Description:
The protein has 77 residues and is α+β, with helices and mostly antiparallel strands. The chain has a single domain (3-75), classed as SH3 type barrels (Roll). It is 17% helix and 40% strand. The protein is built from two helices and six strands; from the N terminus they run ββαβββαβ. The protein has helices at 23-31, 65-68, and strands spanning 3-4, 13-19, 39-45, 52-56, 59-63, 71-75. Strands 1-6-2-3-4-5 form a six-stranded antiparallel β-sheet. β3 and β4 form a beta hairpin.
Amino acid sequence: MSIPLNQLAPDASGTIESIQAGQELRRRLAGLGLRSGIRVQVIRQSPLNGPMQIRVGHTDLIMRAADAAHIEVCPGP
């Protein structure tokens, strides 16, 4: 069962299953290391649908919740 990354709770992690976005956004996310099969962890979420901090490997990223909504993840340990 996959959910959008922006709905993953803080301190939860998951594996990226797909990115449902246009070519430009997919290319930008791939440049940040976000591709299918990669594990991500949500560190924190700003209130009112603000930006979120996610961890990919040893790198922390800040991204808009609207962009994170295009990333489908399978929650899990």
